[in-house]
Amino acid sequence: MSGDHHKLNLSAGMASVTVAILLVGVKLWALGLTGSLSIAASLTDSALDLIVSLTGLMAIIYANRPADDDHAFGHTSAEDLAALAQALLVSVSGVAILWSATGRLLADSPPELSAEGPGIIAMVFAIFVTGALVTWQLRVAKKTGNKVVAADSLHYLSDFLPNVGAIVALFASSAFGITSIDSIIAIAAALFLLFSAFRIGKGAFDALMDRRAAPEDIARISEIIGSWPGVLGFHDLKTRTAGNKVFVQVHIELDPDQTLYQAHGIGAGLKHAILKAMPEADVIIHKDPAGDPLSPNRTT
Fold first, then answer.
1. Helix (H), strand (E) at residue 283
2. Model confidence band, residue 207 (pLDDT cutoffs 50, 70, 90)
3. 9 Cβ partners below 8 Å, 6+ apart?
4. What is the pLDDT of residues 112-159, one digit of tens each?
5. Angle, to 10 degrees, between the axis of helix 116-144 and the axis of helix 37-63?
6. What is the largest CA-CA distance in the chain?
7. Could you tell me the fold of the domain covering 215-289?
């Protein structure tokens, strides 16, 4: 990972931890004033955000460590482990909120809300701070491709629904005396959390299981290889992902009568072209003589 990308990822991770601490404090204060379950749902989510953000920050730091004797391919899988942990924590949060909200909705005498005005102010503040953080995280994730930052932005993005829902619930309670909306919105927020957790968890699980790269990335790699001067064919193109890194392995077929130096030049140029298109890739190119019967699956 380049130094600039690591600095960007690190800044996103530190910003996430800072915002999580701030939001936990604000929502804890608002919950004490209002007794709103939708705020409690948002507070629970922010508390988990803090744990997840700390885990993500440690993963970003660890994943940037260079390869060593025990981890010859680097430490980028730490990002996927952290993202999977994030998904599990968000799932637990969603189930807990769903259970509490359903119980309150079905209760004969749901508790009354209070101090709705300060609660609304607190949630508006939370939306503003969260929006600023998500904007920065999405920008960093787009530039670096870091899965931890992307996953972090997703579950902070999911905070918007419970935050807005809490405002709606507090307003309905203050203006119309309707308290059931609080539980209904909390249920919707919980379902959204569970959906987000599934998306995050699936991506992390796929990477840990060495799933191939995205089809568009494979197509781009194939196009570069197939059109590279001196390459007469290729086979056994294999890819896998780990964190924000894509590992690429391919056999290219070259003129058997050319010199080793010429063959090396073709392979080196091709590797450079792939890395230019995908800077975070790790590329291994095997060189085979064209027409070799021991080279299966030839394209030409």
1. strand 281-289
2. low
3. 1, 60, 64, 140, 144, 146, 148, 149
4. 555 567 777 877 888 888 888 888 888 887 777 666 677 677 667 766
5. 20
6. 87
7. Alpha-Beta Plaits (3.30.70)
Cβ neighbours for 94, distance < 8 A, ≥ 6 positions apart: 190, 191, 193, 194, 197
Judging by DSSP bridges, how do beta strands 245-254 and 281-289 pair with one another? parallel
Work out the average pLDDT over 158-187: 70
Q: How big is the CA angle at 277 (ends 274 and 279), to the nearest 5 degrees?
A: 85
Predicted model pTM: 0.52
* Ranges for all domains in the chain classified under CATH 1.20.1510.10: 3-208
Query: Of the CATH numbers 1.10.150.120, 1.20.1510.10, 3.10.20.600, 1.10.10.10, which one belongs to the domain with range 3-208?
Result: 1.20.1510.10
Which two structure tokens, joined as six digits, stand for 133? 């953080």
Q: Enumerate the CATH 3.30.70.1350 domain ranges in the chain, comma separated.
A: 215-289
